[in-house]
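$ ./design --mode recover --in tokens.txt
reading tokens...
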């Protein structure tokens, strides 16, 4: 489930990239660069990978999916047309901070539903 989404604009006002935080058993955060077609996924253990050839339509489907993890495994992972590589690992403090964002936003969403 999408918890937080930010669109970062270029100086000319065009969309530079999208950052999103998810409540997911597997996926913690994504950063998507639509012009480059590159998606960075930070997983819950901190490993962060980049995936190339991700169209804006595919990213939108990923973001709106009922389960980002299922969508990832069915449509992105191990697809020959989608090149990937490990980029870096988040520090444990970064993972904790992102999980805290998920927890706090989830609580506020639940409070609004009552």
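writing sequence...
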């Amino acid at each position: 489930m999408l918890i937080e989404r930010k669109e970062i604009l270029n100086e000319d006002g065009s969309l530079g990239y999208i950052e999103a935080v998810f409540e997911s058993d597997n996926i913690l955060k994504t950063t998507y660069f639509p012009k480059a077609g590159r998606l960075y996924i930070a997983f819950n253990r901190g490993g962060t990978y980049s995936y190339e050839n991700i169209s804006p339509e595919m990213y939108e489907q990923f973001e709106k999916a009922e389960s980002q993890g299922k969508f990832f495994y069915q449509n992105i992972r191990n697809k020959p047309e989608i090149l990937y590589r490990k980029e870096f690992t988040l520090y444990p403090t970064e993972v904790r901070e992102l999980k805290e964002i998920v927890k706090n936003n989830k609580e506020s969403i639940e409070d609004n539903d009552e």
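exit 0
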